[in-house]
Amino acid sequence: MTTHANVHLLPQTDQLRALHTVIRDREARREDFVFHARRIIRMLVESALDLLPFEEHDVTTPVGETYRGLRCAAKLCAVPVIRAGESMEAEVRDVLPGVRIGKVLIQRDKQTKLPHLYYSHLPDDIAERHVLLLEPMLATGGSALAAIDVLTKAGVREENIVFVNFLTSPEGLERVMEAHPRLRLVTSSVEERLNEHAFMIPGIGDFGDRYFGTVDSGAR
């Protein structure tokens, strides 16, 4: 269990465990995987939005009374890490229909095993925005750090980044939070460990492959 103040683990309810049971099953049909994964992603997005700044905003109710409410005070941008991160984009759009969307493509070099930035397209005013960084899997942390580096080099303040993550390993979590202690991270599960092949245990397989229907090859 994480002890980082800026790491927010979804409440480990029976309902969440039941959803995880479906999507972790290697025999799960793709439509079942997608349906149950989307339910968890919606929980993650709602939890991430709760970390944003709010301001007071009063409204008049249908009976003529004042409700002293709140509204989000942040300019937002969602940045999925292509390809797996795009699985989370639809849930963000459902909750925030007009949200700006950036894109980052990072892949590991087959020779060096190091993450390499292939593509980045962000709004011109990204430095003025709070960013929901969308990436389902955080294993070794290399790709996550590369994506965060893209944002900070574009002027985004570390404390204005909320990393929306599906599964994380203890090793990847420590590496990312040590490098960026002011970043906030939301996840649905901290796994037991990485195995010798850098696969998360007990794991879920390759999230992008299972979500989009390509070959399952394990999650790194």
Report the total helices: 6
What can be said about the biggest beta sheet? 8 strands, mixed
Order of helices and strands: EHHEEEHEEEEEHEEHEEEEH
Number-wise, the strands total 15
Any idea of the CATH topology?
Answer: Rossmann fold
Radius of gyration from the CA trace?
18 Å
Task: State the separation between the terminal residues, measured CA to CA.
Answer: 21 Å
Report the average pLDDT across residues.
93
Overall body shape: globular
- Shape-level CATH architecture: 3-Layer(aba) Sandwich
Low-pLDDT segments, ≥5 res: 216-220
Strand content of the residues, in percent? 25-35%
The helix content is 25-40%
Structural class: alpha/beta
Overall tally of domains: 1
User: CATH top level?
Assistant: Alpha Beta
How are the SSEs placed, and which strands pair?
Layout: E1 7-9, H1 14-24, H2 30-49, E2 54-60, E3 66-72, E4 76-82, H3 89-95, E5 100-101, E6 103-108, E7 115-121, E8 130-134, E9 137-138, H4 142-153, E10 161-164, E11 167-168, H5 170-179, E12 184-187, E13 189-190, E14 193-194, E15 200-201, H6 207-212
Parallel strand pairs: 1-12, 4-5, 4-6, 4-8, 8-10, 9-11, 10-12, 11-13
Antiparallel strand pairs: 2-3, 6-7, 14-15
Walk me through the structure:
The chain is α/β, with parallel strands linked by helices. The chain has a single domain, classed as Rossmann fold, CATH 3.40.50.2020. 30% of the residues lie in helices and 28% in strands. The strands form four sheets. Strands 1, 4, 5, 6, 7, 8, 10 and 12 form an eight-stranded mixed beta sheet that branches. A hairpin with a 5-residue loop joins strand 2 and strand 3. Helix 1 crosses helix 2. The C terminus is likely disordered. Its EC number is 2.4.2.9.
